Amino acid sequence: MKNKTVLFSKALFFCILCLAPVFLAWGIFGHEHINRAAVMALPDPIQPFFYNHVDFMTQESTVPDVRKYTLHDKAENPRHYIDLENFGGIDSLPLTMTDAKARYDEKFLQQNGILPWYILDQMDQLTKAFKEKHKTEILFLAADLGHYIGDAHMPLHTSSNHDGQMTDQKGIHSFFESQLPELFGKDYSYHTPEAHYIADLHKEVWRFIAASHHLKDTLLLADKKLKEKIGTDKVYQKDDKGVQIKNKYNQPIHTLEYSKLYHEMLKGMVEKQLQNAIEMTSSFWYTAWVNAGKPELGDLDPKALTIRSKKALNEEKALWKKGKLFGIESEKEY
Ligand SMILES: [Zn+2]
User: Fold this and answer.
1) Which of 118, 210, 230, 331 is deepest in the core (most CB within 10 A)?
2) 240 Cα to the center of ligand 1, angstroms
3) In this structure, what DSSP letter does residue 193 have?
């Protein structure tokens, strides 16, 4: 079973390398760091099990985007965002997917997204997988859940102006979630508080969705202001003929000067949102396990594997306490 899982994980990873999509939401760099650090933030009773599969959890973090862009799974698309403006006030929104489906038609939800409700649905599935001690499902669902919680912490995933297309700022989505973490992410700290139990999951999901949404005006306004200040000439990289250079996903590449100034203007927003996503991901995993009745996970893997991983876990934990993670060489998008 383990070999099968590893093979499948490698095959998916290969797909990601060959066919990575335009918007990964945090990009490969961000998603991989969120899931790996979330394993490090887990408490003792479940950490050794997750650490036995930490490479799988890391690589699997971008698979929901592969389903969306490469495998063209239509159902996948609306799970990654919510265009909050089109739903009216956040306080009056339905709490569950069932209620959302009763209030809005399918086409509306397909267009405007179901991210918060999908996170809650995935939590139910993960809790069930823990209860049944279904190892493969636990790992797949937990890794997927980390992806969607990560997306929810990317402010533009909560807005209809998701690529600044309504405010003449096209390209900002990928700039914020991929180019900036690739440029500056190696200096971020991925150390967060240890996972905690979340008593009210609905409330918590809407809390971090609202907080994320709150940030989108700040990041859009900062981009507008900076463009005005330094002149549009210095924003994008250009070739000798003055033509904008694009990355492999046809996204404009911002100059290093612009990226540095913009990153400073955001005052740590990218780093903070990644940290928030890490803390929430590990806390949601932990909560699902508690709600499942705290099943013993030690017998899901061969003892020898857990013993072998222990040394690496202790070493990576020490590193993580300094803010760093072991050997993630994320595929570059820029
Ligand atoms: Zn996504």
Assistant:
1) 118
2) 35
3) P
Domains in the chain and their CATH numbers?
2-220+269-321 (1.10.575.10)
What does the buried/exposed string (b/e) look like for 139-160 if buried means 16 or more CB atoms within 10 Å of the residue's CB?
Answer: bbbbbbbbbbbbbbbbbbbbbb
CA 65 to ligand 1 centroid distance, Å: 5
Rounded to the nearest angstrom, the distance between the alpha carbon of 307 and the centre of ligand 1 is: 34
Tell me how far the alpha carbon of residue 72 lies from the centroid of ligand 1, in angstroms: 13
Among 66, 132, 79, 89, smallest CA distance to 109 is for 79
Flag residues of the chain having pLDDT under 50: 1-22
Q: How far away, in angstroms, is 80 Cα from ligand 1 center?
A: 5
Q: Tell me, what's the pLDDT at 59?
A: 93
Q: What is the pLDDT of residue 330?
A: 73
Whether the pTM exceeds 0.85: the reply is: yes
Separation CA 260–CA 111 (nearest Å): 34
Cα of 211 from ligand 1 centre, angstroms: 18
* The pLDDT value given to residue 90: 81
SS3 content of the chain, % helix, strand, coil (to 5): 65, 0, 30
* Ligand 1 centroid, distance to 254 Cα (angstroms): 22
Query: Bridge-partner residues for 246, per DSSP?
Result: 252
Residue 333 sits at the vertex; the CA angle it makes with 331 and 334, to the nearest 5 degrees, is 125
* 186: CB partners within 8 A, 6+ apart: none
Q: How high is the pLDDT of residue 27?
A: 87
Encode 146-165 in three state secondary structure. Answer: HHHHHHHCCHHHHCCCCCCC
The rounded Å distance from CA 302 to ligand 1 centre is 33
201 CA distance to ligand 1 middle (Å): 21
Distance of CA 100 from the midpoint of ligand 1 (Å):
20
